[in-house]
Amino acid sequence: MQDLAPRPVEEFSANPPGSSRTVIKVSDLTVGFGRTTIISGVNLTLMQGSIVALIGPTGSGKTTFLRSLNRMNDKVRGYFAGGGILLDDQEVLSDHVDLLELRRRVGMLFQRPNPFPMSIRDNVLAGVKAHGLAKKSEHDRIVRENLERVGLWNAVSGRLHDSPFRLSGGQQQLLCLARSLAVQPEVLLLDEPTSALDPISVEAVEKLLADLAEEITFIVVTHSLAQARRISDHTMFFFDGHLKESGPTAQIFEDPQQPETQYYVSGRMG
Amino acid sequence: MASDLARKTEEPQAPRIFRPTTKSPLGPVKIASAVSSVAPLLALLAILGILVHQALPAVKYNGIGFFVHNVWHPGNFYLQPVTTNGVLHPAQADYGAWAIIVGTVLSSLIALVIALPASLGAALVVSKLLGPRVRNTLGIFLELLAGIPSVVFGLWGTLTIGPLLSRDIYPIVAKHMPDVIILRWFRGSTGAGEGLLTSGIILAAMIIPIIASTSRDLFAQVPKLTEEGAEALGMTRMEVTTKVTLPWVSAGIIGATVLGLARALGETMAVAMVSGSVLGTLPTNIYSTFNTIAATIVTTLDSALIDGTGLAVRTLAEAALVLMLVTLLANVGARLLVRKVSTTALPVGRGV
């Protein structure tokens, strides 16, 4: 019941065959800090090439869940996690996991743009260099490719060596997206990625996610129900630390099964 | 009622947003703020003016040779004073500040080489790795360290650290250091503990709190979101620090470093106590006794006052002028560096 059903066949028609493999499988996940349990008993399966929206009231555990997937909570004092998170059959929560490689495969985009204090070009290459993914001779190509993917190339091609802090907020967020894409992640976690952007930038980011979803699985925490509805294939509703309901986005919004979900998606709560 | 009518007949007035000022344009507040805003500039100009005025006869007599040779000879006070270039001076007086300029710059650079990594390390550990309670306690100690009088550092250096280093550490280092460029400087006679390296170490201890506490405040300003972004990209802690945290505050770090450097360049008492106070010779290795401009001024002022022609004191004023110049150069250099660094790393701690 709580597992996500695979997307209906007709929706998959645009995707290459075989793309509906499982990317992330979460089983009975419990996460907390100190003596407080934040989320418990979360089960779900995510297929490749989908956009999943995490919705729910503030404090329901969406972000904590999201940050468990790439283990960004690890250094928080008193953090604990139980259950399992399988990324391509590898246990993410294992002590033996290579955190750096995990974070290359499971990237993250934050609430506000967070470019690094280096040139625009070096921002795109930051992860590539850190992971030693490409030879120096390929750097130009990688910069261009990824800036083109996010539609930023024309705007910044003449000032690749300039500071990223002179770009607009929307452009900065696109640059951060290009930076994440450059390390070729399989999954990208987005923590309210458009909450600090103007409507035009929001549209640009949303369109990009739709275009990129064939290759990358997106998990998006959002407070905007309209956004969840616009961009996601699946929606998961978190309430009070539990995954209350999940399913195809249309079903969650049109025909929610749980009373809390009904309340929330109708705008009467949260 | 009548008053109501009267009001209605008045011309309708546009609502006033700004009331016209009734006070005179030169009130006491304005005068006070004008005075206090130009006071630092006036003070600087006054000091510089007096110094130049005092130093002028020495500049005339010593000439350009002051900067290129290493003699410090007040002349023979038993002979008749002579006049050269219109300046009355003791016979055979000869001053050259090259050695003390070199000593000033070298000891401060040694201090910086030791203090900069130590301060950044301390600041990083305190601000990034420790919990809030330990962080605050250590922070208090850091600031206490900055408040220790320099004479205490000097005493500590000359009584404890100097002898200890020259007995147990320096000989071993000197013996095992290879005979190649720069490292060659660590070979040879190690002396009794008073000298360039000991001074550099003492100076480092004095400027570490300055650089460290400023850097700690800077590191605290680096947004968590940006550092998390680097972590989420799969960077190691070291990469996050060197690629994101440090560049974010690089301009401010340069400023803090110059603050420390200025302190080291001008430090007088502690250096006077551990330098060995030799005049007129260049250091031959890193353990050599030497002297700095500031220490020379304080240690020779007494004897300079004996010079009836006044040239010795004037020469010290000239030395002070040179010290100001060196410090000024360091500041200008730092500003240029900040400008270069700031092109991509804007956000925090601009300016020196």
Can you put this structure into words, describing what you see?
- The complex is a heterodimer of chains A (270) and B (352).
- Helix content of chain A is 34%, strand content 25%.
- Chain A has helices at residues 9-12, 62-69, 99-105, 120-131, 139-149, 153-156, 169-181, 199-212, 225-231, 249-254, 259-265; strands spanning 22-33, 36-47, 51-55, 79-87, 90-91, 106-109, 187-191, 217-221, 234-239, 242-248.
- Chain A has a 6-stranded mixed β-sheet, with helices on both faces. A 4-stranded antiparallel β-sheet of chain A has the order 2-1-4-5, covered by helices on one side.
- In chain A, a hairpin with a 2-residue loop joins strand 1 and strand 2 (36-47).
- Chain B has a domain at 100-295: Orthogonal Bundle (MetI-like fold), CATH 1.10.3720.
- The model of chain B is unreliable at 348-352 (pLDDT under 50).
- With 352 residues, chain B is an all-alpha fold.
- The A-B interface holds A 70, 72, 77, 99-104, 107-108, 110-112, 114-119, 122, 126-127, 130-131, 161-165, 176, 179-180, 183 and B 131, 223, 225-226, 228-236, 239, 243-244, 247-248, 250, 343-347.
